[in-house]
Amino acid sequence: MSVVKRVSMIFKAKANKALDRMEDPRETLDYSYQRQLEMLTQVRRGVADVATSRKRVELQMNSLQQQQTKLDGQARQALGSGREDLAREALTRKSGLQNQISDLQTQYQSLQADEEKLTAASQRLQAKVEAFRTQKETIKATYTAAEAQTRIGEAVSGISEEMGDVGMAVQRAQDKTAQMQARAGAIDELMASGALDDVTAQPNDDIQRELDQMGSSHDVDRELARLKGELDQGEAPREIEGSASGAAGNGQSGTVADKPQAGDGS
Amino acid sequence: MIIRILGEGQLAVDDSLAGELNELDARLEAAVSAGDEAAFRPVLAEMLERVRGAGTPVPADSFEPSDVILPYSDASMDDVRGLLSEDGLIPG
Fold this sequence. Notes:
Distance between the termini of chain A: 82 Å
Oligomer: heterodimer
Strand content of chain A: under 5%
Radius of gyration of chain A: 36 Å
Strand content of chain B: 5-15%
Structural class of chain A: mainly alpha
Structural class of chain B: alpha+beta
Order of helices and strands of chain B: EEHHEEH
Low-confidence stretches of chain B: none
Order of helices and strands of chain A: HHHHHHH
Strand order of the largest sheet of chain B: 3-2-1-4
Number of strands of chain A: 0
Largest sheet of chain A: none
Shape of chain A: rod-shaped
Shape of chain B: globular
């Protein structure tokens, strides 16, 4: 027998078996409706679970991307200060994060697709359940043995198939979400344990420390140069300042005295 | 006839599509028998694409059971084997 025929047959058999038939067919209607409402709750919970999982992956992705940006800035800063070795180290760490980010991106897309599918399934089931409720009341009102029994059988089989389908979709999404939660938890744990310290920029990150040290020694050098400059031509501006008085005099002294400083600063 | 694509719902499809679907089904069967995942996936994709293109969604107030049920779009061959097994993927 063909694959499709077997899948169809087994699926239908299982979906119908899932619903125990009551002695009174009208009870079967009510029971089926109860099951449908339960299934709707289950699907909505499934959608919420997938959304939570997706948001968690998004947060992790953002935090790793921030670390990447920081490393990129450090590489620029290092290169600007002529420290190619430090820049290389920062870029190496940056590329190390890329694999994790790519993995999270794949997970994110997959969860997003699941969320969309499950939302659509939930809407489909809701429309079906509403239609079933209407039909259920009609069948019960016009209940005349044989005819009603046929209609009940049809309606219940049809909705059972839908529930089997939706139930399977929820279960698949939940299995997948559980797997991804486990992986996300592992990344959270790694981040918290500090095991990623050697690839991510931490507060006491050594690249930053070296850059900070370099930065402060540069500041000291710059300050020294400025002071030396002031001393070298210290007498001339002071004489101008001393000889002039009032606002106009201050303006003049400013333009003359500021020139060497501006040159140092650039 | 009414075809359900698992995870996507029911579609009403003209009976004239049966011949083409049977051909695709035979190729699917061959792929499963040979354990050839690389052949299986594109055939399944083609089958679903064909049904989606030719079908119209069945209204919500219809409770007609499907004539044919097709696996969900990202099903692997293992998933299909699961669908076929006694205590497979369908929650009972």
